[in-house]
């Protein structure tokens, strides 16, 4: 029923600040793990984190092509992360079934 496993993922994120890029990458990690597993996730524990690439893109943005020039910066991060997952396997969990019949009055009220 309870299971621990380790998984290595490659995550990417981008944002207007360094913190936003890392936050987006970690959020995508969690979404990817939840999407890939059918079990109930109890805990994600990071074991190892290695940055593969960190890129800073800088460009000049102008309003109407020549007015109000400003320099914009965008950050992109790609990292490998090893995590330990603690989860509950739903395939091995047995549910008991209970069937309830509503009373006559409730059945009549629901027909409306």
Automatic annotation (TrEMBL):
Organism name: Paenibacillus oralis
InterPro entries listed in its UniProt record: DUF4312
Protein name stated in the entry: DUF4312 family protein
Domain of life: Bacteria
């Amino acid at each position: 029923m309870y299971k621990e496993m380790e998984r290595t993922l490659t995550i990417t994120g981008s944002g207007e600040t360094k913190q936003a890029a890392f936050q987006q990458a970690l959020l995508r990690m969690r979404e990817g793990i939840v999407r890939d597993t059918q079990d109930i996730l109890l805990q994600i524990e990071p074991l190892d984190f290695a940055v593969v690439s960190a890129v800073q893109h800088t460009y000049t943005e102008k309003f109407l092509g020549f007015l109000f020039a400003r320099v914009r910066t965008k950050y992109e991060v790609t990292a490998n992360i090893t995590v330990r997952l603690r989860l509950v396997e739903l395939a091995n969990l047995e549910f008991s079934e209970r069937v309830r019949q509503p009373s006559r009055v409730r059945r009549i009220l629901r027909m409306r």
